[in-house]
Amino acid sequence: MENAIETNSENNVFIQGPGLVRRFNGFGIVVTGDHSSVDGVAITSICAEGIRVFGSYNEVEGNSISRVSLDVTIPSHGFTGIFLGAPDNNLCEVSLVGPSPGQDICKLPNFAGHRNGPVDLN
């Protein structure tokens, strides 16, 4: 399974759009370090989640995600546009999932790891 972008447990990684991630048979973006951000990226036609976040003090903001989690045979993935595996002060805001205009997945109640407000990346 190939992923489009991975941070490989590095900290302070900034993935900043505009940009398009599409047609990967794994995950779109995988953040495994701390104090990192994914901002302004469009993700489409991905077999697993669009964005997976582990670690602490990460930001996911202003992204657009559509046609993800297409392969339901991949074991143990959450069938979501954005997956926060560690809810330790990660911030997810204004990221749209679904066809335009999309639903702001980060504003849904009971979204894992959801936290509104500024996060200090320093």
Would you mind describing this structure in some detail?
The protein is mainly beta and 122 residues long. It is built from no helices and eleven strands. The protein has strands at residues 5-6, 14-24, 29-31, 37-46, 51-53, 59-61, 64-66, 82-84, 91-93, 96-97, 103-104. The strands form two sheets. Strands 2, 4, 6, 7, 9, 10 and 11 form a seven-stranded mixed beta sheet that branches. A four-stranded parallel beta sheet has the order 1-3-5-8, with no helix packed on it. The radius of gyration is 13 Å and the shape is globular.
Please write out the topology:
Elements: E1 5-6, E2 14-24, E3 29-31, E4 37-46, E5 51-53, E6 59-61, E7 64-66, E8 82-84, E9 91-93, E10 96-97, E11 103-104
What general outline do the C-alpha atoms trace? globular
Percent in helix: under 10%
How many DSSP H or I helices? Answer: 0
The SSE string, one letter per element, is EEEEEEEEEEE
Largest sheet features: 7 strands, mixed
Quaternary structure of the protein? single chain
The poorly predicted ranges are: 107-122
* Overall strand count: 11
- Average pLDDT value? 75
Query: Helix/strand/pairing class, anyone?
Result: mainly beta
**How many angstroms does the end-to-end distance come to?**
33 Å
Strand content: 35-45%
Radius of gyration: 13 Å
